[in-house]
């Protein structure tokens, strides 16, 4: 659940980043945790590939501009939509992918890099 919450917060920051410049904001996730972030967001990773739908809604012309890594599950779970996104935004295929938390394949060092 943490990847989704962090991703959702980052997605929210993308929406806010157009109207807010260089400030710190604190968000509270649905579990009641507070996360403090600098805005505007410059780089993000997606803890779940399907969060691309949120980015597509928030940044329809360039949803991948700030994405520097994402979980590879989107292409596996929804190959048809992945193909549509890849055709419209071919840069998504160059974004590094990483494993998941539940299966123990997530690598913190890889994500930080």
The termini sit apart by 22 Å
Compute the CA-based radius of gyration. 14 Å
Strand tally is 5
Number of domains: 1
Helix content: 25-40%
Low-pLDDT runs:
1-20
Largest sheet features? 3 strands, parallel
Overall pLDDT confidence: 78
Question: Class in CATH?
Answer: Alpha Beta
Helix/strand structural class: alpha/beta
Strand content: 15-25%
| Secondary-structure element pattern, one letter each | HEEEHEHHEH
- Which sequence of strands runs across the widest sheet? 3-4-5
C-alpha geometry: globular
CATH topology: Rossmann fold
Number of helices, counting only DSSP H or I runs of 4 residues or more: 5
Label the CATH architecture: 3-Layer(aba) Sandwich
Furnish the topology, listing elements before pairings.
Blueprint: H1 2-17, E1 23-28, E2 34-39, E3 44-46, H2 52-58, E4 67-71, H3 73-77, H4 79-88, E5 97-98, H5 108-112
Parallel strand pairs: 3-4, 4-5
Antiparallel strand pairs: 1-2
Describe this structure in words.
With 113 residues, this protein is of the alpha/beta class. It has a single domain (2-103), classed as 3-Layer(aba) Sandwich (Rossmann fold), CATH 3.40.50. 38% of the residues lie in helices and 19% in strands. The protein has helices at residues 2-17, 52-58, 73-77, 79-88, 108-112; strands spanning 23-28, 34-39, 44-46, 67-71, 97-98. The strands form two sheets. It has a three-stranded parallel β-sheet with strand order 3-4-5. It has a two-stranded antiparallel ribbon with strand order 1-2. Strand 1 (23-28) and strand 2 (34-39) form a beta hairpin. The model is unreliable at 1-20 (pLDDT under 50).
């Amino acid at each position: 659940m943490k990847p989704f919450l962090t991703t959702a917060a980052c997605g929210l920051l993308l929406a806010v980043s157009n109207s807010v410049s260089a400030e710190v904001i604190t968000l509270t996730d649905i579990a009641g945790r507070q996360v403090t972030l600098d805005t505007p967001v410059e780089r993000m990773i997606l803890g779940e590939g399907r969060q691309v739908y949120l980015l597509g809604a928030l940044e329809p012309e360039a949803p991948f501009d700030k994405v520097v890594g994402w979980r590879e599950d989107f292409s596996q779970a929804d190959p048809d939509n992945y193909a549509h996104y890849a055709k419209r935004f071919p840069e998504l295929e160059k974004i590094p992918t990483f494993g998941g938390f539940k299966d123990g394949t997530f690598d913190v060092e890889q994500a930080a890099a």
